[in-house]
Design brief:
Low-confidence stretches: 1-21, 158-173
Largest sheet: 3 strands, parallel
Strand content: 5-15%
Number of helices: 7
Order of helices and strands: HEHHHHEHEH
Structural class: mainly alpha
Helix content: 40-55%
Mean pLDDT: 78
Length: about 170
């Protein structure tokens, strides 16, 4: 059962984000490769829904609606309704600072956080954007407790990247 808490996020300007989330001096992200053991844990089912981790989210819908994953959730409900009624309440309650404290106190020093490409730009897909600020919050919590974060971008939309790269290449001529 997940730990329940509400994530309070601030709407920050780009300048404030740069101040809050600064690049580390080390090119390795603060890991002493060769001398520091990496002991990691994964926070799945939070910023990318996985029905086998969060079945209760999907069980509330009749099977006839065809909602079986995050894509079909946005497709059937609409991205905004999926965000407002399902995803945001889940993001607000699935993980909290106390979870990061427990992770650190258990001897882990790295946390992997899967996040979908649609958190930043849904590329005209049914996915609902909006998870990116939660990743920022998680990075802040990790820094408070001395844990590193590995962000894992899921379901990278290669077609979109190719199209956008192609458009950029064409425009450069």
């Amino acid at each position: 059962m997940p730990f329940r808490a509400i994530i309070y996020t601030n709407r920050l300007t780009n300048a404030q984000h740069r101040t809050r989330l600064q690049k580390r001096d080390s090119p390795t992200g603060g890991i002493a490769w060769g001398s520091e053991k990496i002991r990691g844990v994964n926070i799945g089912g939070w910023l990318v829904l996985e029905p086998w981790i969060t079945p209760s989210i999907f069980q509330q819908y009749n099977n006839s609606k065809g909602i079986v994953d995050e894509y079909t959730l946005g497709q059937v409900l609409g991205a905004q309704a999926a965000h407002d009624n399902v995803l945001k309440p889940h993001w607000d309650s699935w993980v909290a600072l106390g979870d990061f404290q427990k992770i650190a106190n258990s001897g882990f020093n790295v946390v992997r956080i899967p996040i979908g490409f649609w958190a930043f730009d849904n590329a005209n897909t049914p996915y609902a954007s909006g998870a990116a600020p939660y990743l920022d919050t998680a990075i802040g919590w990790a820094r408070q407790v001395g844990v590193k974060v590995v962000g894992s971008i899921w379901s990278l939309c290669v077609t979109v990247i190719r199209v956008r790269s192609w458009e950029t290449w064409i425009k450069s001529y």
